[in-house]
Amino acid sequence: MIKADFERYEAYKDSGVEWIGTVPDHWFLRHFKRFATMKGRIGWQGLKYSEFTDEGPFLITGMNFKGGKINWDEVYHISEKRYQQAPEIQLKNHDILMTKDGTIGKLLYVNNIPAPYKASLNSHLLVFRPIKESYYPKFLYYQLDSTIFNKYTHIAKTGTTFFGISQTAVGQYIGLLPPLPEQKVIAKYLDSKTALIDRKIELLTQKASLYENLKKSLINETVTKGLDKSVKMKDSGIDWIGEVPEHWVFNRHKDNFIFITKTCTDPTLYKVGLENIEGKTGRFIATNSDFEGNGIEFKINDILFGKLRPYLAKVYLAEFKGNAVGDIFVYRTKYNMIPKFAQYLMLSNKYLDVINNSTAGAKMPRVSSSFIANLIIATPPISEQKAIAQFLDTKTTKIDQIVKTINIKIDNLKELRKTLINDVVTGKIKVVK
Fold first, then answer.
1. CA 191, 196, 201 angle in degrees (round to 5)?
2. Which distant-in-sequence residues (6+ apart) come within 8 Å of 50 by Cβ?
3. How many whole angstroms separate alpha carbon 173 and alpha carbon 149?
4. Which residue intervals define the domain Type I restriction modification DNA specificity in the entry (predicted)?
5. Antiparallel, parallel or unpaired: β 296-298 and 303-306
6. Domain spans of the chain, in order of start
C-alpha cells in the first residue's frame, strides 16, 4: 500500500525512556519546555458566551477541529478588543494547537487563517511555538500525534470524571530532536504518505455512508409502502406517512402497542440502559455498568425505545427478560403487530423525525409517552408484516456485512497511519529522500 522507501539508521542509543526505547545516535532528547513555548488562555478572562459575534477575530475551541483539520465556518468570533487582551495566544500560521482537557491530545496545525486573518484560543487548549528555530513545526505536530506521546498523556493526566493534563506535565515530556534538515525531510514525507492514507479513508468512509443511507431508504420505503410496487395506493392524509397501500389500515400507536409501566422488583434481572442499545441498528451492547435503582420489567420480544434524544435511534427488540432503567420506554405489541416489523417501523427515519420534532427540552430533549400513544401509524396485515420483516432482515444483514468489511479496512488504514507516524518520528525507520 505504501512503498517501503525507508531503512534503518546506522547507529542507535538507549533513550533512557521506557516507552521510547532506542533512538538514532545523533538525535537529541529534550524536555518540551526546553525547545517549545506552550501558552493557553488563563480561564476565560471574563469572556462570556454572549460576547461571541458573527464577525471579527476567530475564537477556536477544541470542538472546532478533528483529525488535524478545522472548519472555519463553524468557529465563533470575538471583538477586536477581546482579541487584543491576550497577545500571547494570538495565533499565527504554523502554530500547533492541542486540547489539554476532556478529550486530550486533539491536534490542529494552524495554516491559512481566513479573513480577518486573526484568531485566538478558547480555554482548554495549548499553543506550541518553537524557541528560536529549535524544531520544524510540522515535525513537532507529528511527534504530538505519535502513540508514544499519547501514552505519556494517558499516564500524566489527572482527574476523575473530567480528565486533563497540565501545561507543566506537557513541558516535562521528553521529545526527540533530529537535526533540523532531517526534521523537514521527515515532516514532508509524512505529509505525503498520510495524505494518501487519509484520502483512502475518506473514500471508504463515503462508501460506507452510501450503504448506510441505502439501508435507511430501504427501511423507510418498505415499512410505509410495502413490497408490492404494483398495489393500488391511497393518500394517508398524514404528512410523515404519505401514500400507503390501499388495504393498509390506520391506528393510533396505543392501538398496536401496550405501554409497559410495571416496576421491576427482581434484582437478578439484567439492567439495560441507553448505553446498551446501539443507535440506528438496534443491536444490544453488553457493558459492565451498574445502573442504580429499579426500572421497567421487560420480556422477550418487547421493544425498548430510547426517549432521550430520540434522533439517536436506540430501538432494541428484547432477546431476553430484563430491567429497563433510565430514559427508556417499553412497548409490547398487540395482536395486530409483530415485534420485528414494529422495530423496523420505529427505526425508520420518517417515524423518528416526527418523534424528534415533538420533543421538549433544549439540552436533553425527551419525547412524551402521550405523544407516541396518539401517533397515527399505517398497519399492514400480519402476513405482510412478516414478509416485510423477513425481507428487511435479509437486505439489512447484507448491507451491515458490507459496511463492517469497509470499516475493517478503515481501521486497518488508521492503524497503519499511527504506526507509520510513530516509527518515523522515533527513528525506528529512516526516511530516504
1. 120
2. none
3. 8
4. 49-198, 296-410
5. unpaired
6. 1-7+178-248+380-433, 28-177, 254-339+353-368
Torsion 261-267-273-277 (CA) sign: negative
Among 124, 136, 228, which Cα is nearest to 179's?
136
Please give the Cα distance from 141 to 17 (Å, whole number): 20
Contact 265/399 with Cβ under 8 angstroms? no
Radius of gyration of the chain from its Cα atoms, rounded to whole angstroms = 28
b/e per residue, 386-406, with b = 16+ CB within 10 A?
Answer: ebbbeebeeebeebeeebeeb
Give 202's contacts (C-beta < 8 A, 6+ positions apart): none
Assigned C-alpha cell, 77: 468570533
- For residue 237, report the phi and psi dihedrals to the nearest 5 degrees: 75, 5
How far apart CA 380 and CA 389 sit, in angstroms, is 12
H/E element, 388: helix 382-425
Q: What is the distance between the alpha carbons of residues 139 and 182, in angstroms, rounded to a whole number?
A: 9
Torsion of Cα atoms, 86 then 131 then 65 then 287, to 10°: -110
CATH of domain 254-339+353-368: 3.90.220.20
| Ordered DSSP codes for 220-283 | HHHHHH-S-TTS-EEE-S-TTT-EEETT-EEEEHHHHEEEE-PBP--TTSEEE-GGGB-TTT--
Please choose, from the candidates 281, 186, 248, 251, the residue with its C-alpha nearest in 3D space to the C-alpha of residue 381. 248
Asked if 346 and 403 touch (Cβ cutoff 8 Å), the reply is no
CATH code that applies to domain 28-177 = 3.90.220.20
- Tens digit of pLDDT at every position of the chain (433 positions): 454 456 899 999 999 988 889 999 999 999 999 999 999 876 656 677 778 888 999 999 888 887 788 889 889 899 999 899 889 999 999 999 999 988 888 999 999 899 999 999 888 899 999 998 889 999 999 999 999 999 999 888 888 777 889 889 999 999 999 999 999 999 999 999 999 999 999 999 999 999 999 999 999 999 999 999 999 999 999 999 999 999 999 999 999 999 999 999 999 999 999 999 999 999 999 987 778 778 999 999 999 999 999 999 999 999 999 999 989 999 999 999 999 999 999 999 999 999 999 999 888 999 999 999 999 999 999 999 999 999 999 999 999 999 999 999 999 999 999 999 999 999 999 987 6
CATH fold for domain 1-7+178-248+380-433: Helix Hairpins (1.10.287)
Contacts of 278 (CB under 8 A, 6+ apart): 284, 285, 314
Chain-centroid distance of CA 39 in Å reads 28
